[in-house]
Amino acid sequence: PPAHSHSDWIGPPDRHSNLRPVIFYVPPEESALERRLREARQEAQDSNQRFWARHNRAFRQEKEEFIYSRLKAKGLEMRDESGHKATLNAEEMADFYKDFLSKNLKKHLQYNRDWYKHNFRITFLMGQVALVRALRWLRWRKKNVGQ
User: Fold this and answer.
1) pTM value?
2) What is the Cα 80 distance to its own chain's centre?
3) CA dist 143 → 11, 114, 120, 133 (Å)
4) Which of 43, 61, 127, 138 falls 20 to 30 Å from 37 in CA-CA distance?
5) Which long-range contacts (CB under 8 A, 24 or more apart) does 38-46 make?
6) Which tens digits make up the pLDDT trace of 112-140?
7) C-alpha distances in Å from residue 41, one per residue of 10, 48, 146
8) Residues 110, 24: Cα–Cα separation, whole Å
9) CA pair distance 146, 143, nearest whole angstrom
10) Which residues contact 123 (CB under 8 A, 6 or more apart)?
11) What is the DSSP letter of 85?
């Protein structure tokens, strides 16, 4: 982001995770509490990035293996006569999706628990930052109204 920017920057989707990376704005006079909030947000983003990159990689690999095994069982090749990639019908792919989700249920449950932990922490820190800013504004207003 340009040096004059005063906001977070959101990039294009990552090719592995499909998540949009965020470059967080760091104010010049960032307080310790604001830094903790920014770092918690960054940590949550990094955790999501790692999970979805691994998950999507495993999904694509297992999907290819499933398609290959089903086509092989039917005596078909991965490419048809015209060179296009051979596909399976929706019912066959539904079997794969159901099996993949069942095999990865524990990983998804753990991800959801971690996601909630990250978000509760971020929300708590956001509340603290908002309270500190409100109190600072009230003190400033009281000081300036009295003058």
Assistant:
1) 0.82
2) 36
3) 42, 43, 35, 15
4) 138
5) 40/118, 40/121, 40/122, 40/125, 41/122, 43/118, 44/115, 44/118, 44/119, 44/122, 45/19, 45/21
6) 999 999 999 999 999 999 999 999 999 88
7) 13, 11, 39
8) 26
9) 5
10) none
11) B
